[in-house]
Amino acid sequence: MPNFLPALLLMCTLLAMHPSHVAQARQDGWTAHTSMRSAIAVASGADDVWVATTGGAFGYRLSTGEIKTMTMVDGLSGVQPRAVAVDDVRDQVWLGYGDGVLDRVDLATGRVTVFRDIARATQFASRGINRIHVREHVLYIGADFGVVVFDPVRDEVRDSYTRLGTASPAIPVRDIAVGPAIDGTERIWTALPEGLASAPLSAPNLQDPSAWQLEFVGATVAANDIRSLAFSGSTLYVGTARDLYVRAADGNFLAMGLTAEPVSTLRSVEDGIVGAERFRVIRIFQNGVAQLTSIPGAQDPTGATRTPDGSLWASDANEGLLRLSDPSQGAIQADVQGVFNPNGPSAGNFSTLTVATDGTLWAGGANASNTGFHRRNPDGSWDDFTGRTYPVLNGKNRFLSVYSGDDATAWFGSEGGGLVHVVADELEIHDASNSSLLPATGTDNFVVVGGVAGDEQGRIWTTTRASGVPLHARDDNGTWRAFGPYVGEGLTSSATAYGRIHVDSFGQKWVIVRNETNFQLVRGLMVLQTGDISTPEDDRFRFFGSAGGAGLGLPSTTVTAITEDRDGLVWIGTSSGPAYFVNTGVVARDASARAIWPQWADRSNGTFMLFGLRINDIAVDPANRLWFATSEGAWLVEAGEGGFTPVQHFTTENSPLFSNEVLAVAVDDLSGEVYFSTDRGALSWSSDAVAPSLTARELTVYPNPLRLDATDAAEVMIDGLVEATDIRIVTAAGSLVRRLESRGGRVAWDARDETGQLVSSGVYLVIAVGRNDEGTAYGRIAVIR
What we know:
mainly beta
């Protein structure tokens, strides 16, 4: 008797689960900054083309030209879907993920429904979704452990098949097609790493392995490593790891000799089949002629589809979505008629972030080859600086340090490509050929920049490693000077691996010192006072190269971040938590200076703030609150009586953060936008702290009017405040409703009075008095209940 008990148990497990169709609304205040130019898969319907990308999904509406983006901020369950299907019958799009989660997007409303049934089948080590095949009132899902049949009307798993004939149990299903056998019987066909498995749809029990027939397409392993399937009429085409095969009239499969590359996708269209191999698209005509067609400018097509208007569409790992002319028989090239991508950067993983005084975001690329850096302009548009957009950057990558001053320019340090100065859209390269920057020993011009910062005199300070001279300064007149290495306090002449650098308000340089024999390790922190830069004899420094304890000293010598707050404290991030120095301006020559571990005001949180957490980055907002990018999310803390108090702690559980590994954080003082870079992409959140006004002026209060009912939670923003403000909200008759205090240019009011009750309908006056004699500012808000 066939043993199909495991499959039966899986079906029972899935059916016993409560439907996981949890609708998710857009997370207000959050914006995703992912790249959607690396397309993974494409699908089309009557009026839509949808693309799954490494940064979410987007759709192009044929009739209007509208592009609609979907990310985790909009309710998607993940960052990177790897399967997509358009359901015209229900006006929906389905997205599948590598963890087995299935998303449904209702195109009319934008509502996302998340189904986790497949992801919960934990008896299988891998549960990813590879293909979604929409057929009438059922979805056939190719998963890493077999076939899952999903009912989109009842929102539940209907069945599952994990034993497909004599194939290995729980084998990955890469593609699914439904079509006739040679005898005309309608069958479900599955692409497996071990061959082609099929079963009649009319079979009484498809969980029974004996209902399935495993066929071998060819005589080699590659021929039976099946990647894709599609029917043209009653003719079955099979894409394998090395070629395309066609089923002949006698049931045998014939190699077409089309390509030696994997045929990753095939899709049935009205007059044949379209698909993609590694470098080109595939077109199979109704007469059986198959051809490869190249795409100018495309390097890695990942899929193809065809829409009712006759356009051929391709997803590409580098270019996003391409509209192509449908090639005629014999054509070797398709014309690109359009490139469609949502506004965003060309790559979404950032190593470092900084915001200029005008609100421009500068983002360093990933620590990988063929990467560049990026700029988000104040109007929200993005510009990319890579070897593809700027040939001068060819061969230069790993831009892991950035500085932007008040002159609307930016400086980026490359690990190997020297220093790049961005002036408008022009690039100036500084390396061993035109500066004091020295190449790594044994190379001609491989300059490894560890950090870059500016001082109040307009100098640019740059650190390097792998050469004999680790510190350099460029005056505003273009003159370069070299410094160090500094010897003493445990540092020898071989200590030439300097990393991130910060110049404080007194001109002291805070420099991370790395291990000179293993650049991945950090030795500690150097604080340097250069004095007259033309006279190195007056330089003074201290090196903090040992870990402290009991609240004093560095929590760890692995220093990761340095910044200065608005009260003059210099904050240090380490692999074991934060610390700060009281910056007297003479730390570099003060033998008694020591780092202090911040403490929680509420000791129920523990004694020392964020102790034990890896701090990847630190930023200060206009209210002098501290943002910490950590390995356990993003923390916002503020100073209070007796210590520090947590204000926000964003994680994947309570926010759209793509990952709890937050690598960098930066604050736009003008808008209050807080940018987070995670190891799975970047996003931002609109905070209530903006740069204060210098003088009292008319306040901006919004939303205005405010509409709420008896149970509403509300948030009213009061904007345009000075640095420190006492705020009173009063009725039209002058009765006090609420007192507030603000540090920074914006404060939020929850529309409640001093007793915690929502206020009644009426017009309320906002009175803001600057604590430092800046004057009084006024605003009004109407409340409607």
